[in-house]
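Re: [help] complex structure
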Amino acid sequence: MAVTQEEVLNALRTVQDPDLKRDLVSLGFIKQLRIEGGRVAFAIELTTPACPVRDLMKDQARVAVAAIPDVLQVDITMTSQVRSSMAAQPSGGLVPTVKNIIPIASGKGGVGKSTVSANLALALSRTGARVGLMDADVYGPTIPTLLGITAAPEVDAQNRITPVESHGLKVISMGFFMKPEEAVVWRGPMLHKTVQQFLGGVLWGELDYLLVDLPPGTGDVQLSLCQSIPVTGAVIVSTPQDVALNVAQKAIAMFKKLNAPILGVIENMSHYVCPHCGTTDEIFGTGGAQRTAERMDLPFLGAIPLATPVRVASDDGIPIVISQPDSPAAQAFVQAAERLAAQVSIRAMQGELQPHVNVSF
Amino acid sequence: MTDTKTPVPIEIGRANEHDVKIRWQDGHESVYPARALRLACPCAGCAPPPPAGQAAISAVKPAETGPVVRAGGGGVAETVHPVRIDLVGRYAISIQWSDGHNTGIYTFERLRTMCPCCSAGGVRQGARVETD
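Output below.
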C-alpha cells in the first residue's frame, strides 16, 4: 500500500502549535510535502525562527507521521516566515518593509530598558530573524555604547539614513547625530519629527522585528510612535519593587489607551547571585513584575538577574547575549526573546483573522 | 485600570456627499453630520478650556492650524466638510477639513461615545463593544 498525501496530512492535523492552539495543517505550516514510496519529506514553516517549541513540534510531527503504516522514513525541514502584524498599514505607510514594530517601555527610568532592548534584539537576531533596533531615547541615547558603535550612519542626497549594522542588527540612534557632551533640548514637535524620520527616513529594508527603545515616561515620543504606525505591541520592563511597578502600570495604561496590545512584561534586576558565596539576594524584592502581569492578565516574558557581567558586557559594547551566551543572564534574555516572538506570532495570526479598518473618504 | 475595550471600526466612509459613516465591529453603524463633527473637534485649540482650577496648557496658534471652533460654533462655515480621513495608529482618525483645520485626533472611543443615534448614556443597551 502506498502512503497517500491525505494520510500524512491527517496525521499532522493531530499536532498542535501550543502557542497558536491550532494544528499544523490548518495553520498552513506544512510545505513541500513529498511522498516516495515509504519515504515522506516535508517542511514545517513556523511563524518565527525564535519559536520556543520548534523542537517539540518537530518531534511530535515525526512521531505522528511515522505511526502511519508503511511509512519507513520521515524527513522534516524546519523553516520560518515571520508574519506581519502591520496588515492594517496602508501601502504608502511609513515603514512598509517592516513586519513588526515593538516598543520597549517602562514608565520609570533606570530599570534597564536599553540593556533589555539590545539583548532581546540580539537574541532574536541570533535565531536568524532580521532585526532592527531604534534607539528612540533621544534625551539619553545609550544604544551606541551598549553595542560599541562608533561609526556614523550615512545620509544620502535625499536625506535618507542608512542604519549602522552592528552584531547583525540594523541600528539607528540619536546618539549618532550628536556629540557626547551635547544635549537634546527639544519641545514636542521636534520629537515628533525625529520619530517620523527614524521610521520613514531610515532605509530599514526588510525586517522581521523592529525593536524601539523608548525614553522613560508617557510623553511625546511614545505618543508620536503610536500615532505614526500601528505598533505590533509593547514590551514593559520593570524592576520588582513597588515604585517601579506603579509607574510601569502607567505605561501599560497609556498603551491600552492607544489601543496598542501589551505583548508582555519583563522583570529586570530580578535577583542578585553573589559571585563569591553564591547566596541569592533579592535586592528589589522579586516576582513583583510577574504578579503584576498575572493580575493584569498580561503575558510574563521572563526574569533577568542583576549580574555584574551584564553591566560589564554592556559597558564593553558587546552585550552578554553575544559575549557570554551560556551565562544565566544571557539564557534569561534568550528565553524572554523566544516568548516575545511567540506572542508576536499569536498577535499576527489574530490580526489575520481580525477585520481591518477600511478607510474610504 | 479600566477593562473596557476600545471600540473598533471596520469601515469608515461616506454616508452621503459630506457626512461620515462608521461601521463598527459589533455591526452598529454611526452617521456623523459633517459640521457637527467639525464642531466637536477635540484638538487643543478647539476643545473647551479646562475647568477652573486646572492649569491651561494649550498654546496653539490658530493661524497655523486653520480656524478653531468658537463657543456656539460661530466662525465655522455651514458647508464645512472633511476632505480626507487618515488612520492614526490603532486607535483614532484624523480629519483634514475643507476650512484647512487638521489638528484634531478623534479616538474610536470618543467617536463611539458621540454616536448621534445612541442614547445620551453613550453606547446603547445591548450593543457589544470589544476589540477581539
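Confidence is low (pLDDT under 50) at residues 55-63, 120-132 of chain B.
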